Amino acid sequence: MTVNGMTEDRVLELIEAYGAEPMSWPEDERDAARALLDAHPDAFVDALAVARALDEAMALEDLPEPSAQLSEAILAAAPTPPPARASLIRGLSSLLFPQGVRWPAGAALASLLMGLVGGYAYASTGIGYDQADSAYYAAFGLDVGADWGDLE
Amino acid sequence: MSGIGESDQIARAAGGDRAAQAALVNRNMPIVYRVAYRMLQDRAEAEDVTQETFLRAWKQLPDWQPRAKFSTWACTVALNLCRDRSRKKKPVLMDELPERVDTALRPEEALASQQGIEGIAEKIAALPERQREALTLCALEGMSNIEAAAAMDVGVRALESLLARARRSLRASLRAQLEGDER
Questions:
Q1: Are B165 and B157 in contact, with CB atoms under 8 Å apart?
Q2: With an 8 Å Cβ cutoff, is B30 touching chain A?
């Protein structure tokens, strides 16, 4: 008795090892075994009944539940998220400036003063735009005294 | 989390995503615990093994390779931990011990036996270690034959042999109980 390469002996082996429920049988043999089962049901009635009785007996197994704290203990040891970039910068800053960085007023005032002094110094030297341009062109070997009008 | 694949869930859990970690634990912890309990027959020890299994999982997650399902991997680890504990506690019960003669539970006896069954868990616990592992993974936790064989590090044919022997022994044990009840 064979259907799709499946033999009666093999179906009996499957029932013996995996029980009466075809869903428990190996996936690659299930369809062929079912086909043989459907084609010759009488051949397997007894084996299926014996296996089913054991399946049902095993379903009565009653195990104690784990304690409620088990999940919590497992999750407490789980990996934590890597530190965010902002907190990395914060960590670096607190390492470099343990007293804290005081931006506000002092730094703003210092910037303002530096700007004022720099501007005044530049104005008082009399170095204007023309002189700066001359220095730039001279650096590239151009004749700064040439009469640009000649080129025209 | 149900719409997220296991690999994705594992990657998130490894990155510290608490929801993914909780989902992974909720889905797999009961299986690992039940497997450990059936092997050790002690709730506290089963919980220790379950916790140790997940501790190893947390360390493993960043390098996780999806070669097997997480549950298969976790059961493999749990079984190894259980074997270690069993060996420290008592001599190994060899699978080669003679099987009890299977006088097969007849269909007409099935209902009566179910009503009269006491301590099926104890009968499963009395099976030799490897038979119990096979029965636990396949029959009781619904693993496929390939997954269970991988978790036990045996071939599929060897797994089938263990399963068949386990079921024969259980049937014989139930039969003996039934006959004892009748007397």
A1: no
A2: yes
ipTM of the complex, rounded to two decimals: 0.80
Which residue intervals of chain B bear CATH 1.10.10.10?
107-182
Q: From the list A17, A49, A50, which residue is nearest B160 (CB)?
A: A17
User: What is the DSSP track for B94-137?
Assistant: -TTSPPPP-----HHHHHHHHHH---HHHHHHTS-HHHHHHHII
Regarding pTM above 0.80, the answer is no
Do residues B92 and B129 lie in contact, with contact meaning Cβ atoms separated by under 8 Å? Answer: yes
CATH code for the structural domain at B107-182: 1.10.10.10
Distance separating alpha carbons of residues B16 and A80, to the nearest angstrom: 4
Question: Could you tell me the maximum CA-CA distance found in chain A, to the nearest angstrom?
Answer: 119
Residues 109-168 of B with CB under 8 A from A: 109-110, 113-114, 117, 120-121, 124, 135, 138-140, 142, 144-146, 156, 160-161, 163-164, 167-168
Distance CA A106, CA A104 (A): 6
pLDDT in tens, B40-96: 999 999 999 999 999 999 999 988 887 889 999 999 999 999 999 988 876 555 554
Question: Does domain B6-89 match CATH 3.40.50.1240?
Answer: no
Band (A122; pLDDT cuts 50, 70, 90): low
